[in-house]
Amino acid sequence: MIDLLKKFIESNWVIEKAVRELVERLPLRFRYGISYGPTFRHWLGFLKESEKWDRDRLEAYQLEHLRALLIYAGNNVPYYQSLFQEYGFMPEKVQSPKDIEVLPYLDRRTVQEKKQQLISANVPARALIPLYTSGTSGVPLVIYATKETEEKHWATIVDLWGRIGYTPKTKVVFFTANIRRGKKENLPWNKYGNTLVLSSNYFSDEWIDKYVELMASFEPEYLIGFPHTIAVFCSHMRNRSRNSISRSLKGVILYAENIYEWQIGIIRDVLGVRVLYDYGMVEKVIHAGSCEHSVAFHLYPQYGFTEYLSLNDSTYELVGTGFINYAMPLIRYKTGDLCSKARKVCAKCGRYYDTFTEIDGRMGDYLITADEHIVSVYLDTDFSVLEHIQRFQLYQDLPGRVELKIWPADLFHFGEARRILHEIKRSLGSNASKIRFDIILMDNMKSQTTGKYRMVDQRLNIRNFL
Ligand SMILES: [Zn+2]
Question: How far is ligand 1, taken at its centre, from the CA of residue 171, in Å?
Fold first, then answer.
Protein backbone atom coordinates (compact mmCIF):
# COMPACT_ATOMS: atom_id res chain seq x y z
CA MET A 1 0.00 0.00 0.00
CA ILE A 2 2.74 2.40 0.97
CA ASP A 3 4.60 1.44 -2.19
CA LEU A 4 1.53 2.15 -4.23
CA LEU A 5 1.05 5.49 -2.52
CA LYS A 6 4.68 6.31 -3.09
CA LYS A 7 4.33 5.49 -6.76
CA PHE A 8 1.22 7.59 -6.99
CA ILE A 9 2.91 10.56 -5.37
CA GLU A 10 5.97 10.10 -7.53
CA SER A 11 4.04 9.94 -10.76
CA ASN A 12 2.05 13.01 -9.82
CA TRP A 13 5.20 14.75 -8.78
CA VAL A 14 6.68 14.02 -12.18
CA ILE A 15 3.59 15.40 -13.90
CA GLU A 16 3.54 18.47 -11.71
CA LYS A 17 7.24 19.04 -12.28
CA ALA A 18 6.85 18.68 -16.03
CA VAL A 19 3.94 21.08 -16.05
CA ARG A 20 5.80 23.53 -13.87
CA GLU A 21 8.87 23.38 -16.05
CA LEU A 22 6.84 23.93 -19.16
CA VAL A 23 5.07 26.88 -17.61
CA GLU A 24 8.38 28.29 -16.49
CA ARG A 25 9.57 28.26 -20.06
CA LEU A 26 6.63 30.35 -21.12
CA PRO A 27 7.06 34.11 -21.01
CA LEU A 28 6.91 35.59 -17.56
CA ARG A 29 3.36 36.81 -17.89
CA PHE A 30 2.24 33.21 -18.23
CA ARG A 31 4.58 31.82 -15.66
CA TYR A 32 3.44 33.87 -12.72
CA GLY A 33 0.18 34.87 -14.25
CA ILE A 34 -1.61 31.62 -13.60
CA SER A 35 -2.77 32.79 -10.26
CA TYR A 36 -6.30 33.81 -9.49
CA GLY A 37 -6.08 35.04 -5.92
CA PRO A 38 -8.15 37.84 -4.37
CA THR A 39 -5.82 40.53 -5.78
CA PHE A 40 -6.36 39.19 -9.30
CA ARG A 41 -10.14 39.24 -8.95
CA HIS A 42 -10.19 42.62 -7.26
CA TRP A 43 -7.92 44.24 -9.87
CA LEU A 44 -9.86 42.75 -12.78
CA GLY A 45 -13.10 44.11 -11.31
CA PHE A 46 -11.48 47.49 -10.73
CA LEU A 47 -10.24 47.71 -14.34
CA LYS A 48 -13.71 46.89 -15.65
CA GLU A 49 -15.26 49.56 -13.43
CA SER A 50 -12.68 52.31 -13.97
CA GLU A 51 -12.55 51.99 -17.75
CA LYS A 52 -15.83 53.91 -17.71
CA TRP A 53 -14.38 56.83 -15.73
CA ASP A 54 -13.97 60.22 -17.35
CA ARG A 55 -10.59 61.86 -17.88
CA ASP A 56 -10.77 63.99 -14.70
CA ARG A 57 -11.45 61.01 -12.51
CA LEU A 58 -8.66 58.97 -14.11
CA GLU A 59 -6.19 61.83 -13.70
CA ALA A 60 -7.19 62.23 -10.05
CA TYR A 61 -6.61 58.50 -9.56
CA GLN A 62 -3.18 58.77 -11.19
CA LEU A 63 -2.10 61.72 -9.06
CA GLU A 64 -3.20 59.99 -5.86
CA HIS A 65 -1.33 56.81 -6.76
CA LEU A 66 1.74 58.61 -8.04
CA ARG A 67 2.02 60.52 -4.77
CA ALA A 68 1.47 57.35 -2.72
CA LEU A 69 4.21 55.53 -4.65
CA LEU A 70 6.66 58.43 -4.26
CA ILE A 71 6.01 58.69 -0.51
CA TYR A 72 6.47 54.93 -0.18
CA ALA A 73 9.71 55.00 -2.21
CA GLY A 74 11.04 57.89 -0.12
CA ASN A 75 10.34 55.94 3.07
CA ASN A 76 11.39 52.44 2.05
CA VAL A 77 13.67 52.32 -0.97
CA PRO A 78 17.34 53.24 -0.35
CA TYR A 79 17.97 54.41 -3.92
CA TYR A 80 15.13 56.94 -3.74
CA GLN A 81 15.91 57.97 -0.18
CA SER A 82 19.26 59.32 -1.29
CA LEU A 83 17.99 60.56 -4.67
CA PHE A 84 15.17 62.60 -3.09
CA GLN A 85 17.59 64.02 -0.58
CA GLU A 86 20.05 64.98 -3.29
CA TYR A 87 17.33 66.75 -5.30
CA GLY A 88 15.53 68.21 -2.28
CA PHE A 89 12.40 66.40 -3.46
CA MET A 90 9.48 66.06 -1.05
CA PRO A 91 6.95 63.50 -2.28
CA GLU A 92 4.20 64.53 0.12
CA LYS A 93 4.19 67.98 -1.51
CA VAL A 94 3.45 66.65 -4.99
CA GLN A 95 0.38 68.50 -6.34
CA SER A 96 0.67 67.62 -10.02
CA PRO A 97 2.35 64.87 -12.06
CA LYS A 98 4.58 67.60 -13.49
CA ASP A 99 6.23 67.93 -10.08
CA ILE A 100 8.22 64.75 -10.70
CA GLU A 101 9.99 66.35 -13.65
CA VAL A 102 12.68 67.65 -11.29
CA LEU A 103 13.82 64.04 -10.81
CA PRO A 104 16.22 62.43 -13.31
CA TYR A 105 15.15 59.69 -15.68
CA LEU A 106 16.00 56.14 -14.69
CA ASP A 107 17.72 54.07 -17.37
CA ARG A 108 18.29 50.37 -17.84
CA ARG A 109 21.95 50.53 -16.90
CA THR A 110 21.18 52.20 -13.56
CA VAL A 111 18.60 49.52 -12.78
CA GLN A 112 21.26 46.92 -13.65
CA GLU A 113 23.91 48.52 -11.45
CA LYS A 114 21.77 49.65 -8.49
CA LYS A 115 19.32 46.77 -8.28
CA GLN A 116 19.94 46.09 -4.58
CA GLN A 117 19.26 49.73 -3.63
CA LEU A 118 16.08 49.74 -5.70
CA ILE A 119 14.49 46.96 -3.65
CA SER A 120 12.06 48.06 -0.97
CA ALA A 121 13.50 47.46 2.51
CA ASN A 122 10.19 46.40 4.00
CA VAL A 123 9.37 43.55 1.62
CA PRO A 124 10.74 40.31 3.12
CA ALA A 125 13.32 38.61 0.88
CA ARG A 126 11.20 35.43 0.73
CA ALA A 127 8.31 37.41 -0.82
CA LEU A 128 10.44 38.64 -3.71
CA ILE A 129 9.97 37.00 -7.10
CA PRO A 130 12.96 37.58 -9.40
CA LEU A 131 11.99 38.20 -13.03
CA TYR A 132 14.83 38.00 -15.51
CA THR A 133 14.87 39.68 -18.84
CA SER A 134 17.27 40.80 -21.47
CA GLY A 135 14.18 41.91 -23.32
CA THR A 136 15.09 42.69 -26.87
CA SER A 137 17.96 44.88 -25.73
CA GLY A 138 20.64 42.37 -24.74
CA VAL A 139 21.16 44.23 -21.44
CA PRO A 140 20.36 41.64 -18.78
CA LEU A 141 18.13 42.84 -15.94
CA VAL A 142 16.58 41.32 -12.89
CA ILE A 143 13.38 42.90 -11.61
CA TYR A 144 11.97 41.89 -8.23
CA ALA A 145 8.22 41.71 -7.84
CA THR A 146 5.71 40.18 -5.43
CA LYS A 147 2.81 37.82 -5.91
CA GLU A 148 0.46 40.79 -5.65
CA THR A 149 2.29 42.54 -8.49
CA GLU A 150 2.04 39.44 -10.65
CA GLU A 151 -1.67 39.02 -9.95
CA LYS A 152 -2.39 42.62 -10.92
CA HIS A 153 -0.26 42.24 -14.04
CA TRP A 154 -2.02 39.06 -15.07
CA ALA A 155 -5.44 40.63 -14.39
CA THR A 156 -4.46 43.51 -16.69
CA ILE A 157 -3.64 41.03 -19.45
CA VAL A 158 -6.88 39.12 -18.94
CA ASP A 159 -8.79 42.42 -19.09
CA LEU A 160 -6.99 43.45 -22.29
CA TRP A 161 -7.33 40.12 -24.09
CA GLY A 162 -10.93 39.98 -22.91
CA ARG A 163 -11.66 42.79 -25.37
CA ILE A 164 -11.73 40.15 -28.09
CA GLY A 165 -13.36 37.49 -25.96
CA TYR A 166 -10.43 35.75 -24.24
CA THR A 167 -10.91 34.28 -20.76
CA PRO A 168 -8.39 32.22 -18.74
CA LYS A 169 -10.41 29.11 -19.63
CA THR A 170 -10.06 29.72 -23.35
CA LYS A 171 -8.08 27.23 -25.44
CA VAL A 172 -5.03 28.91 -26.91
CA VAL A 173 -2.08 28.05 -29.10
CA PHE A 174 1.05 29.70 -27.93
CA PHE A 175 4.13 30.09 -30.14
CA THR A 176 7.56 30.14 -28.58
CA ALA A 177 11.07 29.06 -29.58
CA ASN A 178 12.66 26.44 -27.33
CA ILE A 179 10.20 24.11 -25.59
CA ARG A 180 11.56 22.02 -22.72
CA ARG A 181 10.09 19.18 -20.74
CA GLY A 182 12.27 17.98 -17.89
CA LYS A 183 15.72 17.45 -19.34
CA LYS A 184 14.43 17.26 -22.90
CA GLU A 185 15.16 20.33 -24.96
CA ASN A 186 13.81 21.80 -28.12
CA LEU A 187 10.63 19.78 -28.39
CA PRO A 188 8.43 20.61 -31.37
CA TRP A 189 5.30 20.99 -29.27
CA ASN A 190 3.79 20.42 -25.87
CA LYS A 191 0.39 20.68 -24.27
CA TYR A 192 -0.44 22.07 -20.89
CA GLY A 193 -4.12 22.23 -19.87
CA ASN A 194 -5.86 24.53 -22.30
CA THR A 195 -2.60 25.69 -23.90
CA LEU A 196 -0.96 24.05 -26.90
CA VAL A 197 2.62 25.27 -27.25
CA LEU A 198 4.31 25.12 -30.65
CA SER A 199 7.98 25.76 -31.35
CA SER A 200 8.97 28.28 -34.01
CA ASN A 201 12.29 26.39 -34.25
CA TYR A 202 10.40 23.74 -36.26
CA PHE A 203 8.87 25.89 -38.96
CA SER A 204 9.51 23.59 -41.92
CA ASP A 205 7.12 22.17 -44.53
CA GLU A 206 6.82 18.87 -42.72
CA TRP A 207 6.08 20.41 -39.34
CA ILE A 208 3.76 23.11 -40.64
CA ASP A 209 1.48 20.34 -41.90
CA LYS A 210 1.69 18.56 -38.54
CA TYR A 211 1.02 21.78 -36.62
CA VAL A 212 -2.03 22.52 -38.75
CA GLU A 213 -3.36 19.04 -38.02
CA LEU A 214 -2.60 19.35 -34.30
CA MET A 215 -4.47 22.63 -34.18
CA ALA A 216 -7.42 21.28 -36.15
CA SER A 217 -8.00 18.63 -33.49
CA PHE A 218 -7.15 20.92 -30.55
CA GLU A 219 -9.65 23.59 -31.71
CA PRO A 220 -8.04 26.71 -30.27
CA GLU A 221 -9.87 30.01 -30.05
CA TYR A 222 -6.76 32.21 -30.11
CA LEU A 223 -3.17 32.12 -31.34
CA ILE A 224 -0.65 34.04 -29.26
CA GLY A 225 2.90 35.05 -30.18
CA PHE A 226 5.24 37.65 -31.60
CA PRO A 227 4.08 39.32 -34.83
CA HIS A 228 7.02 38.09 -36.86
CA THR A 229 6.66 34.51 -35.57
CA ILE A 230 2.96 34.30 -36.46
CA ALA A 231 3.54 36.11 -39.77
CA VAL A 232 6.28 33.60 -40.68
CA PHE A 233 3.99 30.74 -39.66
CA CYS A 234 1.21 32.16 -41.86
CA SER A 235 3.64 32.58 -44.74
CA HIS A 236 4.54 28.87 -44.45
CA MET A 237 0.83 28.02 -44.38
CA ARG A 238 0.23 30.05 -47.50
CA ASN A 239 3.16 28.38 -49.27
CA ARG A 240 1.59 25.03 -48.36
CA SER A 241 -1.81 26.22 -49.60
CA ARG A 242 -3.22 25.78 -46.13
CA ASN A 243 -5.66 28.54 -45.39
CA SER A 244 -7.48 27.73 -42.23
CA ILE A 245 -6.74 26.26 -38.84
CA SER A 246 -10.04 25.54 -37.21
CA ARG A 247 -13.52 26.98 -37.28
CA SER A 248 -13.13 27.59 -33.57
CA LEU A 249 -10.43 30.24 -34.17
CA LYS A 250 -11.59 33.71 -33.13
CA GLY A 251 -8.49 35.84 -33.02
CA VAL A 252 -4.74 36.35 -32.86
CA ILE A 253 -3.03 38.09 -29.95
CA LEU A 254 0.31 39.66 -30.80
CA TYR A 255 2.97 40.79 -28.40
CA ALA A 256 3.77 44.21 -29.70
CA GLU A 257 7.18 44.46 -31.18
CA ASN A 258 7.39 46.48 -34.34
CA ILE A 259 4.21 45.47 -36.11
CA TYR A 260 4.30 45.96 -39.84
CA GLU A 261 1.37 46.27 -42.22
CA TRP A 262 2.55 43.28 -44.24
CA GLN A 263 2.55 41.10 -41.13
CA ILE A 264 -1.03 42.01 -40.26
CA GLY A 265 -1.92 41.61 -43.93
CA ILE A 266 -0.60 38.07 -44.17
CA ILE A 267 -2.12 37.05 -40.80
CA ARG A 268 -5.56 38.37 -41.79
CA ASP A 269 -5.27 36.88 -45.28
CA VAL A 270 -4.39 33.39 -44.13
CA LEU A 271 -6.37 33.16 -40.89
CA GLY A 272 -9.18 35.63 -41.55
CA VAL A 273 -9.65 36.59 -37.90
CA ARG A 274 -9.30 39.72 -35.78
CA VAL A 275 -5.96 40.75 -34.31
CA LEU A 276 -5.27 42.28 -30.89
CA TYR A 277 -1.97 43.91 -29.85
CA ASP A 278 -0.51 43.65 -26.39
CA TYR A 279 2.34 45.90 -25.29
CA GLY A 280 3.93 45.26 -21.92
CA MET A 281 7.24 44.66 -20.21
CA VAL A 282 8.85 42.79 -17.34
CA GLU A 283 9.73 46.15 -15.75
CA LYS A 284 5.96 46.71 -15.43
CA VAL A 285 5.79 50.46 -15.77
CA ILE A 286 3.44 50.58 -18.76
CA HIS A 287 0.87 48.22 -20.20
CA ALA A 288 -1.17 48.92 -23.31
CA GLY A 289 -3.10 47.30 -26.09
CA SER A 290 -5.64 47.72 -28.83
CA CYS A 291 -9.38 47.76 -28.17
CA GLU A 292 -12.54 46.17 -29.58
CA HIS A 293 -12.67 48.64 -32.48
CA SER A 294 -9.30 50.28 -32.94
CA VAL A 295 -5.74 49.11 -33.52
CA ALA A 296 -4.36 52.10 -31.56
CA PHE A 297 -2.49 51.30 -28.36
CA HIS A 298 -4.51 52.26 -25.28
CA LEU A 299 -2.37 52.81 -22.17
CA TYR A 300 -3.80 51.60 -18.87
CA PRO A 301 -3.88 54.69 -16.60
CA GLN A 302 -4.47 52.40 -13.60
CA TYR A 303 -1.18 50.54 -14.24
CA GLY A 304 1.18 53.48 -14.19
CA PHE A 305 1.87 57.06 -15.11
CA THR A 306 3.39 57.64 -18.54
CA GLU A 307 5.47 60.56 -19.78
CA TYR A 308 6.34 61.23 -23.39
CA LEU A 309 9.91 62.33 -23.83
CA SER A 310 10.00 64.35 -27.04
CA LEU A 311 12.72 63.26 -29.46
CA ASN A 312 11.47 65.22 -32.46
CA ASP A 313 8.17 66.64 -33.76
CA SER A 314 6.49 63.30 -34.17
CA THR A 315 8.43 60.81 -32.05
CA TYR A 316 8.42 60.34 -28.30
CA GLU A 317 10.13 57.90 -25.97
CA LEU A 318 7.81 56.20 -23.49
CA VAL A 319 8.86 56.89 -19.90
CA GLY A 320 6.94 55.06 -17.22
CA THR A 321 6.35 55.11 -13.47
CA GLY A 322 4.61 51.87 -12.55
CA PHE A 323 1.97 51.70 -9.81
CA ILE A 324 1.77 47.95 -9.33
CA ASN A 325 5.26 46.98 -8.15
CA TYR A 326 6.09 48.32 -4.70
CA ALA A 327 8.84 45.71 -4.25
CA MET A 328 11.08 47.57 -6.71
CA PRO A 329 9.49 50.84 -7.76
CA LEU A 330 10.74 52.26 -11.05
CA ILE A 331 10.18 56.01 -11.27
CA ARG A 332 10.58 57.81 -14.61
CA TYR A 333 11.96 54.66 -16.23
CA LYS A 334 13.09 55.08 -19.83
CA THR A 335 11.66 52.13 -21.74
CA GLY A 336 13.58 52.79 -24.96
CA ASP A 337 10.32 52.28 -26.87
CA LEU A 338 9.20 55.06 -29.16
CA CYS A 339 5.70 56.14 -30.03
CA SER A 340 3.80 58.69 -32.07
CA LYS A 341 1.92 61.57 -30.47
CA ALA A 342 -0.65 60.40 -27.95
CA ARG A 343 -4.32 61.37 -27.83
CA LYS A 344 -6.28 61.55 -24.60
CA VAL A 345 -9.25 59.44 -25.63
CA CYS A 346 -10.16 56.66 -28.06
CA ALA A 347 -13.04 57.98 -30.17
CA LYS A 348 -14.03 54.45 -31.13
CA CYS A 349 -14.44 52.80 -27.72
CA GLY A 350 -14.82 55.95 -25.63
CA ARG A 351 -12.16 55.05 -23.04
CA TYR A 352 -10.36 58.14 -21.75
CA TYR A 353 -6.99 56.41 -22.00
CA ASP A 354 -3.91 57.81 -23.72
CA THR A 355 -3.77 56.25 -27.16
CA PHE A 356 -1.28 56.29 -30.00
CA THR A 357 -1.05 54.48 -33.29
CA GLU A 358 2.55 53.41 -33.56
CA ILE A 359 5.10 51.87 -31.32
CA ASP A 360 8.68 51.34 -32.32
CA GLY A 361 11.59 49.88 -30.47
CA ARG A 362 11.15 46.15 -30.43
CA MET A 363 12.42 44.77 -33.67
CA GLY A 364 11.48 41.21 -34.37
CA ASP A 365 14.43 39.21 -33.18
CA TYR A 366 15.30 36.62 -35.78
CA LEU A 367 18.37 35.07 -37.37
CA ILE A 368 18.76 33.55 -40.83
CA THR A 369 20.41 30.14 -41.15
CA ALA A 370 22.83 29.08 -43.89
CA ASP A 371 19.96 27.33 -45.70
CA GLU A 372 17.96 30.58 -45.44
CA HIS A 373 15.44 29.62 -42.81
CA ILE A 374 14.16 32.18 -40.33
CA VAL A 375 14.80 31.38 -36.67
CA SER A 376 13.15 33.35 -33.87
CA VAL A 377 15.41 34.32 -31.00
CA TYR A 378 13.57 34.00 -27.75
CA LEU A 379 16.28 33.63 -25.15
CA ASP A 380 15.43 30.83 -22.85
CA THR A 381 18.60 30.99 -20.90
CA ASP A 382 20.27 30.37 -17.62
CA PHE A 383 20.58 34.04 -16.71
CA SER A 384 23.50 33.42 -14.34
CA VAL A 385 25.78 33.28 -17.41
CA LEU A 386 24.98 36.94 -18.06
CA GLU A 387 26.02 38.07 -14.60
CA HIS A 388 29.38 39.58 -15.52
CA ILE A 389 28.49 41.35 -18.71
CA GLN A 390 26.99 44.74 -19.40
CA ARG A 391 25.38 43.70 -22.62
CA PHE A 392 25.51 41.33 -25.59
CA GLN A 393 24.34 41.55 -29.16
CA LEU A 394 23.89 39.22 -32.12
CA TYR A 395 24.92 40.93 -35.35
CA GLN A 396 24.06 39.46 -38.75
CA ASP A 397 24.57 40.68 -42.31
CA LEU A 398 25.04 37.31 -44.06
CA PRO A 399 22.84 34.20 -43.87
CA GLY A 400 24.42 31.55 -41.68
CA ARG A 401 26.98 33.93 -40.08
CA VAL A 402 26.45 35.75 -36.78
CA GLU A 403 28.78 37.79 -34.59
CA LEU A 404 28.17 37.52 -30.86
CA LYS A 405 29.35 40.84 -29.45
CA ILE A 406 29.92 41.00 -25.72
CA TRP A 407 30.54 44.07 -23.58
CA PRO A 408 32.18 42.67 -20.42
CA ALA A 409 31.66 44.00 -16.89
CA ASP A 410 33.98 43.45 -13.89
CA LEU A 411 34.92 39.85 -13.04
CA PHE A 412 34.29 38.68 -16.62
CA HIS A 413 36.52 35.99 -18.07
CA PHE A 414 36.51 34.52 -21.57
CA GLY A 415 35.12 31.16 -20.47
CA GLU A 416 31.88 33.01 -19.76
CA ALA A 417 31.64 34.14 -23.39
CA ARG A 418 31.62 30.47 -24.41
CA ARG A 419 28.92 29.73 -21.85
CA ILE A 420 26.79 32.60 -23.20
CA LEU A 421 27.21 31.25 -26.72
CA HIS A 422 26.30 27.78 -25.48
CA GLU A 423 23.09 29.14 -23.92
CA ILE A 424 22.16 31.02 -27.09
CA LYS A 425 22.70 27.91 -29.19
CA ARG A 426 20.61 25.88 -26.77
CA SER A 427 17.71 28.33 -27.21
CA LEU A 428 17.97 27.99 -30.99
CA GLY A 429 17.84 24.21 -30.89
CA SER A 430 18.88 22.28 -33.98
CA ASN A 431 18.99 25.47 -36.06
CA ALA A 432 22.10 26.54 -34.16
CA SER A 433 24.18 24.08 -36.18
CA LYS A 434 23.26 25.97 -39.35
CA ILE A 435 24.80 29.21 -38.14
CA ARG A 436 28.47 29.96 -37.60
CA PHE A 437 29.05 32.20 -34.59
CA ASP A 438 32.12 34.36 -33.92
CA ILE A 439 32.64 35.85 -30.48
CA ILE A 440 33.83 39.45 -30.38
CA LEU A 441 34.70 41.19 -27.11
CA MET A 442 33.84 44.87 -27.17
CA ASP A 443 35.32 47.88 -25.41
CA ASN A 444 33.34 49.78 -22.85
CA MET A 445 29.81 50.62 -23.71
CA LYS A 446 29.19 54.08 -25.01
CA SER A 447 26.16 55.52 -23.32
CA GLN A 448 23.17 55.72 -25.55
CA THR A 449 20.91 58.67 -24.96
CA THR A 450 17.79 57.64 -26.81
CA GLY A 451 16.27 54.52 -28.22
CA LYS A 452 16.75 50.98 -27.23
CA TYR A 453 19.74 48.71 -27.29
CA ARG A 454 19.05 45.86 -29.66
CA MET A 455 19.74 42.26 -28.74
CA VAL A 456 19.72 41.37 -32.44
CA ASP A 457 21.23 43.78 -34.93
CA GLN A 458 19.73 42.22 -38.05
CA ARG A 459 20.79 43.71 -41.38
CA LEU A 460 19.01 41.10 -43.52
CA ASN A 461 15.43 41.79 -44.58
CA ILE A 462 13.07 39.06 -43.34
CA ARG A 463 10.80 39.51 -46.38
CA ASN A 464 13.49 38.11 -48.66
CA PHE A 465 13.32 34.82 -46.76
CA LEU A 466 9.57 34.25 -46.45
ZN1 LIG B 1 -10.54 52.18 -28.20
Answer: 25
